[in-house]
Amino acid sequence: MLTKENTPDEVEHLRRGIDEVDAEIVRLLDRRARLARKIGEIKRERGLEAYAPARERAVFDRVAGLSEGDFPRRGLEAVFREIISASISLEARLKIAYLGPETTFTHEAALRAFGSSVDLEPLPSVREVFTKVERGEAQHGVVPVENSMEGAVTHTLDELMASTLKICGEIYLPISQNLISRELSLERIHTVCSHPMALAQVAGWLRRHLPNAKVEEAESTAEAARRASAEPGVAAVGSNLAAETYGLVTLAGHIQESRANTTRFIVLGRQWSEPTGRDKTSVVFSVKDRPGVLRDALSAFAEEGINLTRIESRPSRRRAWTYVFFADLQGHPSEERVQRALESLEEYCPYVTVLGAYPESAPEAI
Question: Are 349 and 288 contacting, i.e. CB atoms less than 8 angstroms apart?
Fold first, then answer.
């Protein structure tokens, strides 16, 4: 509504101001692109990776500190995610393998990590993602490693033990399930389909709101969204990315039973990240067969004041009833206290391997 203080002439004046700002933004983006190209040339000469998680963290933290708060923080991060993605594409052509298919939550995690200016390739299994990166056919990979409700992704843990690849990044993605369809109202929905895990997460909502709808399983949330786009009266349970990709309407959002459902994804590469001052290190180790040895091994971290954010056991797959332990700790292997803790750990453990080091991320709320 126009007021005396907000006349058409005033609005036009403000729009001209926005046009001037936009022109300045484009000029500065071109300048940034020229600098990125030069950095790319130097990286290629020195054999350095184009993707630098530590540098990206520094950029995100710095621009957040420069903001006066008028532009939303999440929006600022999204803008610079794409600016960095475009800059990387000028430095080198990156191919990122991820556990597919398209429009799944792993696809969304890959977009959050690398933006839309890199080549993203969906693959049908975690093992194929590892293999693709190991062969040099992709520079990095993105796979799920744990879910706050379901626990560890065991296929990923097994591949980490067998591979020479390192973890160089992590992404926490809140899992928001939505009812999506080509239909415009719930009354027209007679069938709901999705991956079995997604259906389990929204079972209560479906009983309350669509008690007469037929529930059918699909190979993936992406396949369910494709079906919903093609068949009248069919709705899928899936992500907003799936809805956007297949041109569907979100009939109901955030319909999962638990609001605390978050999946953690890892970025795979050939080397771990440089330290940022707020890092996480992942290790895997086995222990000797004697009473109290696990307690003694973990004391190596306690004595150095190092916090373990996660620890869990997994069959070693080498000998029956033997186990290895996966642990995440706060700190970086370049820190003296972490070095001392790892050296002490080796006194109790016949096998210790650092799986990676990377900037620590925080889970987001839905």
Answer: yes
